[in-house]
Amino acid sequence: MTLSDSPPTDPVTLVVRRRIRSGQEGAYEAALTRLSELLARVPGFRGTGILRPSGGSREYTVVARFDSLTSAAAWELSPERTAWLDTIADLVDDQLSFERQPGLDFWFTPPAAPTLRQPPRWKMAVLTLLVLYPVSVGITLLLSPLTGGWPLGVRALAQMLLVVPAMTYLFMPVATRAAGRWLTP
Predict the structure, then answer these.
(1) pLDDT per residue over 32-43, tens digit each?
(2) How many CA atoms lie within 13 A of 93 on its CB side?
(3) Exposure of 167 by Cβ count < 10 A (0-12 exposed, 13-18 middle, 19+ buried)?
(4) 138 φ, ψ (degrees, to nearest 5)
(5) How far is residue 148's CA from residue 132's CA, in Å, rounded to a whole number?
(6) Extended beta strands in the chain, E state
(7) HEC string of 57-96?
(8) 54: helix, coil or strand?
(9) Which residues contact 185 (CB under 8 A, 6 or more apart)?
(10) pLDDT at position 152 over 80
(11) DSSP assignment letter at 8
(12) Are 97 and 15 in contact (CB under 8 A)?
């Protein structure tokens, strides 16, 4: 996928897998802390996740979420990212993969990523329901004084215009981080 394959307003998740040189895990962990600090300053950055090696593996996976392709591209082309990559060059044996996942897949790990397991669908459904229900009811209560006399279809559209962005950019990223251990133990 290239930068022109997705509209610049869709959310984007970058997924990078790297094999770390033996004995460099501590230095790479410090570099990941620095990466988190750098990403926190990037406009449009929405969160990150790190999957650490298990079972004798030395493969790390970094997942970074952005609100748009434009924000992700700004990070990818930034001098800060280039400098960070220079600092890890001696720590990394190999970059195994780099994926750019467009769309709302960033709520949960995309199923196509071979080393990242998607949570069981029932857990995704339960978490989505637990978050969506109070957000939907709350927005309905807030809008009802303004939209009470509107036709049902128009009221539902007005509600969804608030619910979907709130879920995408605020509530689901927080909920998936908070429920991370439950989603993928």
Answers:
(1) 999 999 999 999
(2) 12
(3) buried
(4) -60, -45
(5) 21
(6) 12-20, 45-51, 59-66, 92-102
(7) CCEEEEEEEECCHHHHHHHHCCHHHHHHHHHHCCCEEEEE
(8) coil
(9) none
(10) yes
(11) T
(12) yes
Contacts 24+ apart (CB under 8 A), 111-114: 113/15
Question: Is pTM beyond 0.70 here?
Answer: no
Residue type present at position 182? W
For the segment 75-105, what is each residue's pLDDT rounded down to a tens digit?
Answer: 999 999 999 999 999 999 877 778 877 765 5
Please name the helix (run of DSSP H) or strand (run of DSSP E) that holds residue 143, with its range, or none: helix 121-147
Read off the pLDDT of residues 97-151 as tens digits, 9 standing for 90 and up.
788 777 655 455 544 444 445 677 788 889 889 999 999 999 999 999 999 899 9
Sheet containing 92-102: which strands, arranged edge to edge? 45-51, 59-66, 12-20, 92-102
What pLDDT, on a 0 to 100 scale, did the predictor assign at position 115? 45
